[in-house]
Specification:
276 residues; mainly alpha
């Protein structure tokens, strides 16, 4: 029952995006099959060159942030999982403290400005690379790995980097996949950070482009209805279909990625929830 409750809204959005604008406007309730099959909504969305640029930028942001985020998160987690680390508990307290208290938007903006990162891709990538939750999950998993493995590697002459890459990484596929999934979803759905830090529209990610597209379509529909033109009704109907198409375009890549990492998801999250 819970699965059906979750799936029906997705079906409604997909079927509505594939419906004719006029036919969709006359339907009531859930749309579980297309109302006069049409791809007008997708045509309106995908004909905008900014959408394709947004896709390219988002892919860059997601890829770079995921690679850097997984690497630096695992690096920090490995160091913080060492029992002999001086002031380890104090460092973890400070990291956990940031989960409850944050400097706020204005200090963060001033920080990005002072670092010269405004209107650069790093303003979107760097703030989300490491999060306390991801660090805790990764650290907890590293702590569960027997110390004897590290001791045996040291006896064979392995250094810290060799131990991390040759022992800890192969044993941490579940946790690494979960961290990667969290980073991908967070960056793919993010638009607020880009809206604050990026004034250059040429650097906008997909979600911000789609938000602007929806606002433009709604504004056009409102102006058309106020003017009382004959096409005002059609414009309003098209706006509704465009909104549904935007949702599908924005979430489709995540739907494609999730099945490949889903098998690691429960295992990786449970590690952090049990011992975190």
């Amino acid at each position: 029952v819970i699965s059906v409750i979750c799936i029906i809204p997705i079906i409604h959005v997909i079927m509505s995006s594939l419906s004719d604008p006029v036919a969709l406007s006359t339907s009531r309730g859930l749309v579980l099959w297309p109302r006069k099959l049409s791809i007008e909504g997708y045509r309106e969305v995908l004909k905008a060159a900014s959408v394709w640029k947004g896709y390219a930028h988002t892919l860059i942001y997601v890829t770079v942030q995921t690679v850097l985020g997984v690497f630096f998160t695992s690096l920090g987690a490995y160091v913080l999982s060492r029992k002999h680390l001086f002031l380890r508990n104090g460092a973890m307290f400070l990291i956990t403290f940031t989960m409850m208290f944050n400097g706020g938007l204005i200090p963060n903006y001033l920080l990005m400005s002072s670092l010269g990162l405004l209107d650069t891709i790093w303003a979107v990538i760097i703030p989300g690379c490491i999060t306390p939750m991801n660090l805790i999950i990764m650290r907890t998993f590293f702590q569960s790995i027997p110390d004897s493995l590290e001791e045996s590697a040291k006896l064979d002459g392995a250094g810290a980097w060799t131990i991390l890459f040759r022992i800890y990484y192969p044993l941490s596929k579940a946790s690494l996949a979960v961290i990667a999934l969290f980073l991908i979803v967070a960056q793919w759905n993010s638009y607020f950070i880009a809206m604050i830090y990026l004034q250059d529209r040429e650097l906008w990610p997909l979600q911000l482009v789609l938000k602007d597209l929806i606002a433009t379509a709604q504004g056009a529909a409102m102006l058309s209805s106020q003017s009382g033109g004959g096409s005002s009704g059609l414009t309003v109907m098209m706006t509704k279909v465009v909104n549904y198409a935007v949702i599908v375009v924005g979430t489709l890549p995540i739907f494609c990625i999730y099945p490949f990492v889903q098998k690691y998801f429960v295992k990786g999250v449970m590690i952090g929830s049990i011992k975190g």
